[in-house]
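User: I'm putting together a teaching handout on how sequence relates to shape, and I'd like one worked example. Could you take NADP-dependent malic enzyme from Thioflexithrix psekupsensis, show the sequence you're using, and then write out its predicted structure as tokens right after it?

Assistant: Happy to. First the sequence, then the structure tokens directly below it.
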Amino acid sequence: MSDDLSADALYYHRNPKPGKLEIQATKPLANQRDLALAYSPGVAAACREIVRDPREAATVTARANLVAVISNGTAVLGLGDIGPLAAKPVMEGKAVLFKKFAGIDVFDLEVSEKNPEKLIDIIASLEPTFGAINLEDIKSPECFIIEQRLKERMNIPVFHDDQHGTAICVGAAVLNALRLQNKQIDQVKLVTSGAGAAALACLDLLVNLGIAKENIIITDSLGVVYQGRSEHMDPFKAQYAVDTPHRTLGEALTGADIFLGLSVAGVLKPEMLDNMVEEPLILALANPVPEIMPEEARKVRPKAIIATGRSDYPNQVNNVLCFPFIFRGALDVGATQINQEMRLACVRALADLVTTDKTNMASADASEVLANAYAGQELEFGADYIIPKPFDPRLIAVVPPVVAKAAMDSGVATRPIKDFESYNQWLAQFMFRSANVTKGIFIRARENPQRLIFSEGEDPRVIRAVQVLIDEGCAKPILVGRHKIISQRIKQLRLHIRPDVDFRLIDPQNYDRHAQLAELYHDLMGRRGVWPAEADVLVRSNTTILASLLLHLGEADALLAGPVGSFAEHLKNGLNLIGLRDDVSSAAAMQMLILDEGTYFVLDTSVTYEPTAQQLAEMTIMAANEVMRLGITPKVALVSHSNFGSSDTPSALKMRQALHLIHQMMPDLECDGEMQTDSALIESIRNRLYPKSPLRGSANLLVMPNQDAASITFNALKALANGVSVGPILLGMKQSYHILSRVVTTRGVVNLSILAAVDAQSLKEGSR
Ligand SMILES: NC(=O)C1=CN([C@@H]2O[C@H](COP(=O)(O)OP(=O)(O)OC[C@H]3O[C@@H](n4cnc5c(N)ncnc54)[C@H](OP(=O)(O)O)[C@@H]3O)[C@@H](O)[C@H]2O)C=CC1
Ligand SMILES: CC(=O)C(=O)O
Ligand SMILES: [Mg+2]
């Protein structure tokens, strides 16, 4: 490791707080009442519930989502027996990976105990605390016995990551590499460096996948493990001892197709590669430094496929690709073990993710996240891409469901999943934080798919989003754009939607209705200074105008303008050609903001610069109805610099008047004001100022006195609190007309599209 990387790593671990994780409460603990619920006396109710039925531990404690990462520090990475204390950074690392990639909570437990019997007793006694056990960096051969005995004793999954997590990733990499090299698995010769936990488990799985045992030679710190060797042997190594004249790694590699290194740094010398076939597969997986550096191997075997355990080279074969996702699937069905069926399902899912252009629930927008995360890297199945990348957001969507299914089919699931569609939607939240909030909208959009017209149909984000909408069955898209460009982009993005089959395509360069639409445009705009000749030019050149006219004619149910062009320009077209609802005097834009603390809405970020009290009241009612449509109960605060009449500035008076109007227009709405933002969000502060406020808990819809306040608040919250936004949701238009922002992602297009679809449905049903 370079001195620079070491220094950076130490800085990373030390700042801003020592270590990599902390515990966070998931429930409020702000007052006497919370204390009574969380702790004595209320907590006793939860205890009694578990006494009544132990399965309730999964509903009243964090256990079902809690994994123990346990090590005694005897085989830490390739650093050897450095002890449990020095192993702690690695275990904290595993913990944060579990959380980051799969939302699983972990306690890392470094145990100072080398005696297998005692360690087994210690770990077995932890069963009440955890939903599963991940053993880590425990040396062989003890690890085999420890795992086996714990599996027998415990009724929760026990998984030795260095064995099975590694084996699963190696299995997927080998299958894909052999496919590229056009080699049959039962014909290849494999040699290991290492005969420990990881190596032997990989071999067990590879034999299961078809490698012939007689084609394997294993080597350890003493060289080849041959039949008859007595020194430094154990029964686990002995299973792979072969009758061979070779005694060294170099000799053993003669004619070998695969080198599998799970030992220590630098043991594979370049000259040893001369003995291998011309196109070998070199898996040099020791961490942090591999058995051979890829550039050295490449000099001797230029056609080799090379993988390491590191993230700074292509083909990172590392168990991080497996453990978060296999545990997610196992925990979600309450599996009592992680068995071979589940492991094989995981191998296939990892291999397929790279080789198959498979569409899954969120593939098209997930691909954009993947492409952005690995900008500039080749993500086409090939010698430098045989295994998924750790930040591939599809892993969480694809692996847990197949693992869960395998657990159910093999009879080890205690809480089988009944509805995989909902489960998939739930998993999507790990890829996209908005997924949990929008899940109900997806379902509604799918019930009655609407015709959504996209005026910028050539934009890659729109094309990807259309793929998702079609895969999800939630819309009948219409794209405005040049046929040739859209077809090319579909191909470049490796999507599978077909123009004129899966979606309607309107090519403005080859459209026979320009004259008719130009006349309509002139009819609508003739008294606003648009001449017939101009109408003709605008309809031909401005796709938002063309799409708006089709929406006006009822040939589409909803329109998504942008993401090219300014919000103001698109809004102007919408107001001109679609117009406002009869009962409102202006439109408004609401942003949804998803933060760790919850989901909030901010109004009006982009339309009316200085709304009147009447306009504020109208937009609040529209916004509250929209929030309800999302399945969330609106709790409205009219925010201000003034707190319940503490100031009589024009702005404070305006908010008070707006409140008065809202009470008249929608008496049941939980709404109060004017108040400062902290009073709006924190009930205890509000209670000190005005305990009789009808608003309870935290407000979730913040109505701002003007556009500056709304825009500033929204952007500050989004930036500082790492928020995800959905919007702007345009309110008040006569038809479902929405505007995509210039910086929108594919997921953002999908989200606004389904909101637009549901808006169109409500319009048809007369419920908005
Ligand atoms: N990329 C990945 O995802 C993973 C990589 N690994 C890496 O694999 C390696 C082994 O881990 P693990 O199996 O858990 O540890 P173990 O302690 O169980 O096994 C280590 C093995 O390496 C062998 N070894 C040690 N020194 C040499 C040497 N000089 N020449 C040849 N072999 C040697 C040992 O030989 P002996 O039996 O003679 O003592 C033993 O067989 C580590 O580098 C680890 O980082 C592990 C898990 C996952
Ligand atoms: C990756 C891992 O678990 C190891 O190197 O031990
Ligand atoms: Mg490990």
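A couple of points you could highlight for students: The chain has five domains: 62-156, 164-320, 322-431, 436-577, 588-732. The first strand starts at residue 66 and ends at 71.
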